[in-house]
Amino acid sequence: MEGFNHSRVSEFVLFGLTDSPELQIFFFVMFSIFYLMTMFGNCLILLTVLSTPHLHSPMYFLLSNLSLIDMCLSSFATPKMIMDFFTQRKTISFEGCISQIFFLHLFTGTEIVLLISMSFDRYIAICKPLHYSTIMSQRVCVGLVVTSWTVGFLHTISQLAFTLYLPFCGPNVVDSFFCDLPVVIQLACIDIYVLGIFMISTSGVIALISFLLLLTSYIIVLVAIKDHSSSGSSKAFSTCTAHFIVVLMFFGPCIFIYVWPFTNFLVDKVLSVFYTIFTPFLNPIIYTLRNQEMKTLIWRLRKRHVLTWLQSQGQHLRGSAESKT
Questions:
Q1: Is residue 222, in this structure, part of any structural domain at all?
Q2: CA atoms of 222 and 211, how far apart (whole Å)
Q3: In CA terms, which of 173, 185, 282, 299 is 20 to 30 Å from 216?
Q4: pLDDT (tens digit, 9 = 90+) per residue, 159-183?
Q5: Is the Cβ–Cβ distance between 169 and 190 less than 8 Å?
Q6: What are phi and psi of 91, to 5 degrees?
Protein backbone atom coordinates (compact mmCIF):
# COMPACT_ATOMS: atom_id res chain seq x y z
CA MET A 1 0.00 0.00 0.00
CA GLU A 2 2.91 2.38 0.62
CA GLY A 3 4.01 1.81 -2.96
CA PHE A 4 0.51 2.67 -4.12
CA ASN A 5 0.56 5.89 -2.13
CA HIS A 6 3.85 6.96 -3.71
CA SER A 7 2.52 6.34 -7.22
CA ARG A 8 -0.94 7.79 -6.68
CA VAL A 9 -1.93 10.53 -9.10
CA SER A 10 -2.28 13.97 -7.54
CA GLU A 11 -5.04 15.21 -9.85
CA PHE A 12 -7.59 14.10 -12.41
CA VAL A 13 -8.41 15.69 -15.77
CA LEU A 14 -12.12 16.17 -16.40
CA PHE A 15 -13.12 15.52 -19.99
CA GLY A 16 -16.17 17.79 -19.61
CA LEU A 17 -19.30 17.94 -21.74
CA THR A 18 -17.79 19.24 -24.98
CA ASP A 19 -14.63 20.74 -26.47
CA SER A 20 -16.51 23.03 -28.87
CA PRO A 21 -15.93 26.73 -27.95
CA GLU A 22 -19.37 27.71 -29.22
CA LEU A 23 -21.13 25.02 -27.19
CA GLN A 24 -19.06 25.87 -24.12
CA ILE A 25 -20.29 29.47 -24.23
CA PHE A 26 -23.87 28.28 -24.72
CA PHE A 27 -23.59 25.80 -21.83
CA PHE A 28 -21.97 28.44 -19.63
CA VAL A 29 -24.91 30.82 -20.07
CA MET A 30 -27.56 28.10 -19.81
CA PHE A 31 -26.17 26.32 -16.76
CA SER A 32 -25.42 29.61 -15.00
CA ILE A 33 -29.06 30.63 -15.41
CA PHE A 34 -30.29 27.22 -14.25
CA TYR A 35 -28.01 27.25 -11.20
CA LEU A 36 -28.98 30.78 -10.12
CA MET A 37 -32.68 30.03 -10.58
CA THR A 38 -32.30 26.76 -8.67
CA MET A 39 -30.73 28.50 -5.70
CA PHE A 40 -33.26 31.35 -5.83
CA GLY A 41 -36.30 29.05 -6.14
CA ASN A 42 -35.28 26.69 -3.35
CA CYS A 43 -34.23 29.59 -1.10
CA LEU A 44 -37.65 31.14 -1.70
CA ILE A 45 -39.38 27.92 -0.65
CA LEU A 46 -37.24 27.69 2.48
CA LEU A 47 -37.88 31.32 3.39
CA THR A 48 -41.62 31.00 2.77
CA VAL A 49 -41.98 27.87 4.91
CA LEU A 50 -39.82 29.23 7.74
CA SER A 51 -41.55 32.62 7.86
CA THR A 52 -45.14 31.34 7.59
CA PRO A 53 -46.52 29.64 10.73
CA HIS A 54 -49.38 28.26 8.66
CA LEU A 55 -46.88 26.13 6.73
CA HIS A 56 -45.30 24.55 9.79
CA SER A 57 -46.86 21.21 8.92
CA PRO A 58 -45.25 17.82 8.17
CA MET A 59 -45.63 18.11 4.38
CA TYR A 60 -44.03 21.54 4.16
CA PHE A 61 -41.39 20.62 6.73
CA LEU A 62 -40.30 17.74 4.49
CA LEU A 63 -40.58 19.95 1.42
CA SER A 64 -38.28 22.57 2.93
CA ASN A 65 -35.72 19.86 3.66
CA LEU A 66 -36.02 18.67 0.06
CA SER A 67 -35.24 22.21 -1.08
CA LEU A 68 -32.18 22.26 1.17
CA ILE A 69 -30.92 18.98 -0.27
CA ASP A 70 -31.57 20.17 -3.83
CA MET A 71 -29.49 23.29 -3.15
CA CYS A 72 -26.66 21.07 -1.91
CA LEU A 73 -27.01 18.61 -4.79
CA SER A 74 -26.84 21.38 -7.38
CA SER A 75 -23.78 22.96 -5.71
CA PHE A 76 -21.35 20.07 -5.23
CA ALA A 77 -20.20 20.10 -8.89
CA THR A 78 -22.15 22.68 -10.93
CA PRO A 79 -20.14 25.82 -9.96
CA LYS A 80 -16.87 24.12 -10.92
CA MET A 81 -18.37 22.87 -14.17
CA ILE A 82 -19.49 26.41 -15.03
CA MET A 83 -16.02 27.84 -14.32
CA ASP A 84 -14.35 25.02 -16.27
CA PHE A 85 -16.06 26.11 -19.48
CA PHE A 86 -13.42 28.85 -19.71
CA THR A 87 -10.53 26.62 -18.64
CA GLN A 88 -8.37 24.98 -21.27
CA ARG A 89 -7.31 22.12 -19.00
CA LYS A 90 -10.04 21.04 -16.62
CA THR A 91 -8.37 19.47 -13.60
CA ILE A 92 -9.44 18.51 -10.09
CA SER A 93 -7.23 17.36 -7.23
CA PHE A 94 -7.45 13.79 -5.94
CA GLU A 95 -8.95 15.08 -2.69
CA GLY A 96 -11.43 17.23 -4.61
CA CYS A 97 -12.47 14.26 -6.72
CA ILE A 98 -13.07 12.10 -3.65
CA SER A 99 -15.02 14.97 -2.08
CA GLN A 100 -17.32 15.16 -5.10
CA ILE A 101 -18.02 11.42 -4.86
CA PHE A 102 -18.67 11.80 -1.12
CA PHE A 103 -21.13 14.67 -1.48
CA LEU A 104 -22.87 13.20 -4.51
CA HIS A 105 -23.75 9.97 -2.72
CA LEU A 106 -24.49 11.78 0.55
CA PHE A 107 -27.06 14.08 -1.05
CA THR A 108 -28.58 11.50 -3.40
CA GLY A 109 -28.83 8.89 -0.64
CA THR A 110 -30.42 11.46 1.66
CA GLU A 111 -32.88 12.58 -1.01
CA ILE A 112 -33.92 8.99 -1.74
CA VAL A 113 -34.91 8.41 1.90
CA LEU A 114 -36.54 11.84 2.12
CA LEU A 115 -38.67 11.17 -0.96
CA ILE A 116 -39.78 7.90 0.64
CA SER A 117 -40.65 9.87 3.80
CA MET A 118 -42.68 12.34 1.73
CA SER A 119 -44.62 9.50 0.09
CA PHE A 120 -45.30 8.05 3.55
CA ASP A 121 -46.59 11.44 4.67
CA ARG A 122 -49.00 11.62 1.72
CA TYR A 123 -50.12 8.03 2.31
CA ILE A 124 -51.02 8.77 5.95
CA ALA A 125 -52.69 12.09 5.05
CA ILE A 126 -54.92 10.49 2.39
CA CYS A 127 -55.51 6.94 3.62
CA LYS A 128 -55.52 7.58 7.39
CA PRO A 129 -56.56 11.23 7.78
CA LEU A 130 -58.04 10.78 11.27
CA HIS A 131 -54.70 9.54 12.62
CA TYR A 132 -52.52 11.95 10.63
CA SER A 133 -51.71 14.39 13.42
CA THR A 134 -50.91 11.53 15.77
CA ILE A 135 -48.70 9.57 13.40
CA MET A 136 -46.95 12.50 11.70
CA SER A 137 -45.98 14.31 14.87
CA GLN A 138 -43.14 16.81 15.03
CA ARG A 139 -40.93 14.18 16.64
CA VAL A 140 -41.62 11.72 13.81
CA CYS A 141 -40.91 14.35 11.13
CA VAL A 142 -37.59 15.30 12.72
CA GLY A 143 -36.78 11.60 13.04
CA LEU A 144 -37.47 11.04 9.34
CA VAL A 145 -35.15 13.89 8.34
CA VAL A 146 -32.40 12.73 10.70
CA THR A 147 -32.80 9.19 9.36
CA SER A 148 -32.50 10.49 5.79
CA TRP A 149 -29.17 12.21 6.48
CA THR A 150 -27.90 9.23 8.50
CA VAL A 151 -28.70 6.76 5.72
CA GLY A 152 -27.14 9.10 3.15
CA PHE A 153 -23.97 9.36 5.23
CA LEU A 154 -23.70 5.59 5.76
CA HIS A 155 -24.30 5.01 2.05
CA THR A 156 -21.54 7.35 0.92
CA ILE A 157 -19.11 5.95 3.50
CA SER A 158 -19.79 2.44 2.20
CA GLN A 159 -19.03 3.63 -1.35
CA LEU A 160 -15.76 5.30 -0.35
CA ALA A 161 -14.54 2.60 2.04
CA PHE A 162 -12.69 0.77 -0.74
CA THR A 163 -12.20 3.64 -3.20
CA LEU A 164 -9.76 5.51 -0.96
CA TYR A 165 -7.38 2.55 -0.95
CA LEU A 166 -7.42 1.82 -4.66
CA PRO A 167 -4.13 2.54 -6.47
CA PHE A 168 -4.52 5.35 -9.00
CA CYS A 169 -1.24 5.60 -10.89
CA GLY A 170 -2.58 6.65 -14.30
CA PRO A 171 -4.31 7.31 -16.64
CA ASN A 172 -6.12 10.15 -14.93
CA VAL A 173 -8.72 11.37 -17.46
CA VAL A 174 -12.31 11.26 -16.13
CA ASP A 175 -14.83 11.03 -18.97
CA SER A 176 -17.36 13.34 -17.33
CA PHE A 177 -17.75 16.86 -15.96
CA PHE A 178 -17.47 15.67 -12.33
CA CYS A 179 -16.12 12.69 -10.42
CA ASP A 180 -18.37 9.71 -9.87
CA LEU A 181 -17.67 6.07 -9.06
CA PRO A 182 -18.54 4.47 -12.43
CA VAL A 183 -15.89 6.53 -14.24
CA VAL A 184 -13.31 7.04 -11.49
CA ILE A 185 -12.73 3.48 -10.30
CA GLN A 186 -12.08 2.39 -13.90
CA LEU A 187 -8.84 4.39 -13.64
CA ALA A 188 -7.44 2.18 -10.86
CA CYS A 189 -4.25 0.28 -11.68
CA ILE A 190 -5.63 -3.09 -10.59
CA ASP A 191 -8.46 -5.30 -11.79
CA ILE A 192 -11.45 -4.03 -9.80
CA TYR A 193 -14.22 -5.46 -11.98
CA VAL A 194 -15.82 -7.63 -9.28
CA LEU A 195 -15.40 -4.96 -6.61
CA GLY A 196 -16.68 -2.30 -8.98
CA ILE A 197 -19.74 -4.32 -9.89
CA PHE A 198 -20.50 -4.75 -6.19
CA MET A 199 -19.93 -1.10 -5.27
CA ILE A 200 -21.76 0.49 -8.16
CA SER A 201 -24.58 -2.01 -8.55
CA THR A 202 -25.52 -1.60 -4.89
CA SER A 203 -26.35 2.02 -5.67
CA GLY A 204 -28.36 0.95 -8.68
CA VAL A 205 -30.20 -1.78 -6.80
CA ILE A 206 -30.97 0.58 -3.90
CA ALA A 207 -32.31 3.19 -6.33
CA LEU A 208 -34.39 0.59 -8.21
CA ILE A 209 -35.89 -0.93 -5.06
CA SER A 210 -36.64 2.51 -3.62
CA PHE A 211 -38.32 3.57 -6.87
CA LEU A 212 -40.48 0.42 -6.90
CA LEU A 213 -41.49 1.05 -3.27
CA LEU A 214 -42.41 4.63 -4.08
CA LEU A 215 -44.30 3.57 -7.19
CA THR A 216 -46.27 1.04 -5.15
CA SER A 217 -47.11 3.59 -2.46
CA TYR A 218 -48.36 6.14 -5.01
CA ILE A 219 -50.46 3.49 -6.77
CA ILE A 220 -52.08 2.64 -3.41
CA VAL A 221 -52.77 6.31 -2.73
CA LEU A 222 -54.19 6.94 -6.21
CA VAL A 223 -56.44 3.90 -5.94
CA ALA A 224 -57.64 5.15 -2.54
CA ILE A 225 -58.75 8.51 -3.99
CA LYS A 226 -59.93 7.19 -7.35
CA ASP A 227 -63.62 7.00 -6.41
CA HIS A 228 -63.70 10.42 -4.73
CA SER A 229 -64.64 13.56 -6.60
CA SER A 230 -64.40 16.18 -3.85
CA SER A 231 -62.05 19.16 -4.09
CA GLY A 232 -59.91 17.66 -1.32
CA SER A 233 -59.43 14.46 -3.30
CA SER A 234 -58.62 16.47 -6.41
CA LYS A 235 -55.99 18.41 -4.46
CA ALA A 236 -54.55 15.16 -3.08
CA PHE A 237 -54.39 13.69 -6.59
CA SER A 238 -52.58 16.80 -7.86
CA THR A 239 -50.12 16.68 -4.94
CA CYS A 240 -49.35 12.99 -5.49
CA THR A 241 -48.91 13.57 -9.21
CA ALA A 242 -46.38 16.34 -8.54
CA HIS A 243 -44.52 14.15 -6.06
CA PHE A 244 -44.35 11.28 -8.54
CA ILE A 245 -42.99 13.57 -11.27
CA VAL A 246 -40.15 14.51 -8.90
CA VAL A 247 -39.54 10.85 -8.08
CA LEU A 248 -39.47 9.82 -11.74
CA MET A 249 -37.09 12.63 -12.74
CA PHE A 250 -34.72 11.82 -9.89
CA PHE A 251 -34.69 8.02 -9.95
CA GLY A 252 -34.78 7.47 -13.73
CA PRO A 253 -31.24 8.75 -14.46
CA CYS A 254 -29.81 7.19 -11.28
CA ILE A 255 -31.16 3.75 -12.13
CA PHE A 256 -29.96 3.92 -15.74
CA ILE A 257 -26.41 4.95 -14.78
CA TYR A 258 -25.86 2.65 -11.80
CA VAL A 259 -27.70 -0.53 -12.77
CA TRP A 260 -25.40 -0.91 -15.81
CA PRO A 261 -21.91 0.05 -14.59
CA PHE A 262 -18.82 0.34 -16.77
CA THR A 263 -20.83 1.34 -19.83
CA ASN A 264 -19.75 4.78 -21.01
CA PHE A 265 -22.52 6.16 -23.17
CA LEU A 266 -23.05 9.76 -24.19
CA VAL A 267 -26.49 9.53 -22.64
CA ASP A 268 -24.82 8.95 -19.25
CA LYS A 269 -23.47 12.52 -19.34
CA VAL A 270 -26.88 13.87 -20.32
CA LEU A 271 -28.56 11.99 -17.49
CA SER A 272 -25.88 13.17 -15.04
CA VAL A 273 -26.68 16.75 -16.02
CA PHE A 274 -30.36 16.00 -15.59
CA TYR A 275 -30.33 14.73 -12.00
CA THR A 276 -27.62 17.09 -10.74
CA ILE A 277 -28.84 20.31 -12.41
CA PHE A 278 -32.28 20.04 -13.99
CA THR A 279 -34.08 18.09 -11.24
CA PRO A 280 -33.10 20.51 -8.43
CA PHE A 281 -34.21 23.32 -10.74
CA LEU A 282 -37.58 21.72 -11.58
CA ASN A 283 -38.49 20.73 -8.01
CA PRO A 284 -39.40 24.24 -6.82
CA ILE A 285 -41.26 24.90 -10.10
CA ILE A 286 -43.35 21.75 -9.71
CA TYR A 287 -44.16 22.36 -6.06
CA THR A 288 -44.94 26.07 -6.45
CA LEU A 289 -46.74 26.15 -9.81
CA ARG A 290 -48.94 23.17 -8.89
CA ASN A 291 -49.63 24.42 -5.37
CA GLN A 292 -51.93 27.44 -5.20
CA GLU A 293 -51.28 27.89 -1.48
CA MET A 294 -47.53 28.15 -1.99
CA LYS A 295 -47.95 30.59 -4.90
CA THR A 296 -50.20 32.85 -2.83
CA LEU A 297 -47.89 32.85 0.18
CA ILE A 298 -44.78 33.46 -1.95
CA TRP A 299 -46.53 36.41 -3.60
CA ARG A 300 -47.50 37.83 -0.21
CA LEU A 301 -43.97 37.35 1.11
CA ARG A 302 -42.45 39.08 -1.89
CA LYS A 303 -44.98 41.92 -1.64
CA ARG A 304 -44.24 42.36 2.07
CA HIS A 305 -40.49 42.51 1.51
CA VAL A 306 -40.90 44.99 -1.36
CA LEU A 307 -43.04 47.25 0.85
CA THR A 308 -40.49 46.99 3.65
CA TRP A 309 -37.70 47.92 1.26
CA LEU A 310 -39.66 50.89 -0.11
CA GLN A 311 -40.40 52.12 3.40
CA SER A 312 -36.73 51.88 4.37
CA GLN A 313 -35.73 53.76 1.22
CA GLY A 314 -38.31 56.45 1.96
CA GLN A 315 -37.02 56.88 5.50
CA HIS A 316 -33.46 57.09 4.16
CA LEU A 317 -34.43 59.78 1.65
CA ARG A 318 -36.29 61.77 4.29
CA GLY A 319 -33.31 61.54 6.61
CA SER A 320 -30.99 62.73 3.86
CA ALA A 321 -33.28 65.69 3.07
CA GLU A 322 -33.52 66.69 6.73
CA SER A 323 -29.73 66.57 7.15
CA LYS A 324 -29.28 68.86 4.14
CA THR A 325 -31.73 71.40 5.51
A1: yes
A2: 16
A3: 282
A4: 888 788 788 887 888 888 888 888 8
A5: no
A6: -120, 160
